[in-house]
């Protein structure tokens, strides 16, 4: 690519004839500015996601300000396309996002969509935690979906619904896994960061198990599948 750009830069301008069609050289579409170069990468990344291109990984422009900004703890940012949106995000920004972007939620012993089920369960849990902390003022929740003839629900109602959901989840799953889910997904704690390979893997597996309980709660995963993976039988009770 660099050789092509150098050749285009060294090329002599074409003498235009009046009325002749104008052809924009390839150099006109590259490196015009950091902002336009970033837009070009995001466009190709969106196409890669939509049409499932192979071996594609999004990166920002070489001289983009985004590359000069340090990521978490001074690390270079790992910019990739998000799972549910056509957005460029830092895969190292939070532990839960890191698990998703690095395919740490997949399990070949379970259904092929288990990674998506676990990711969605984490996002639902995070949303409930966020809603449970909102103010109790009786104002409309414009983010809620109206049903029937009624308009948006109140923020107080949204908060109560979230608190009820979290309460049922806390009762449903073992306390140690609920606390693990809370620490990783909500509090953004990198519990495995200073562990060796075996210790790191053990914690990630425990997080997978916590997410499976949440997936059952949010009706994303059948209870029987959780039992087959983690429990001896469906009659086993969570400790």
Walk me through the structure.
This protein has 239 residues and is an all-alpha fold. The protein contains nine helices and two strands, in the order αααββαααααα. The protein has a two-stranded antiparallel ribbon. A hairpin with a 6-residue loop joins strand 1 and strand 2. Mean pLDDT is 77; it is low at 60-68 and 233-239.
List the helices and strands and how they pair.
Layout: H1 2-10, H2 34-51, H3 65-68, E1 79-81, E2 88-90, H4 95-101, H5 114-132, H6 155-172, H7 175-186, H8 197-217, H9 223-230
Helix pairs in contact: 5-6, 5-7, 5-8, 7-8
Fill in the keyword field for this structure.
single chain; 239 residues; mainly alpha; 9 helices; 2 strands; elongated
Entry summary:
With 239 residues, the chain is mainly alpha-helical. It has helices spanning 2-10, 34-51, 65-68, 95-101, 114-132, 155-172, 175-186, 197-217, 223-230, and strands spanning 79-81, 88-90.
Q: What strand order characterises the main sheet?
A: 1-2
Oligomer: single chain
Q: How much beta, percentage-wise?
A: under 5%
In sequence order, what are the helices and strands, one letter per element?
Answer: HHHEEHHHHHH
Instruction: Write down the overall geometry.
Output: elongated
In helices, the fraction of residues equals 40-55%
Put simply, the count of helices is 9
Q: Would you tell me the overall average pLDDT?
A: 77
């Amino acid at each position: 690519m660099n050789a092509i750009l150098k050749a285009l830069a060294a090329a002599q301008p074409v003498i235009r004839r009046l009325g002749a069609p104008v052809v924009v050289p390839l150099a006109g579409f590259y490196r015009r500015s950091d902002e336009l170069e970033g837009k070009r990468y995001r466009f190709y990344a969106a196409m890669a996601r939509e049409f499932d291109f192979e071996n594609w990984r999004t990166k920002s422009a070489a001289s983009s300000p985004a590359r000069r900004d340090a990521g978490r703890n001074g690390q270079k940012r790992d910019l990739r396309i998000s799972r549910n949106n056509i957005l460029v995000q830092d895969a190292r920004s939070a532990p839960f996002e890191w698990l998703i972007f690095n395919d740490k939620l997949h399990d070949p012993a379970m259904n092929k969509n288990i990674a998506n089920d676990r990711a969605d369960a984490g996002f639902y849990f995070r949303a409930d935690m966020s809603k449970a902390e909102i103010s109790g003022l009786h104002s409309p929740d414009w983010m809620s979906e109206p049903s029937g003839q009624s308009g948006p629900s109140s923020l107080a109602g949204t908060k109560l619904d979230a608190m009820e959901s979290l309460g049922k989840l806390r009762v449903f799953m073992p306390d140690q896994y609920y606390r693990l889910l809370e620490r990783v997904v909500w509090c953004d704690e990198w519990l495995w960061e200073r562990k060796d390979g075996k210790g790191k893997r053990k914690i990630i597996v425990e997080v997978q198990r916590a997410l499976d309980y949440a997936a059952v709660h949010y009706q994303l995963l059948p209870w029987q599948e959780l039992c087959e993976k983690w429990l001896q039988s469906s009659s086993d009770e969570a400790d």
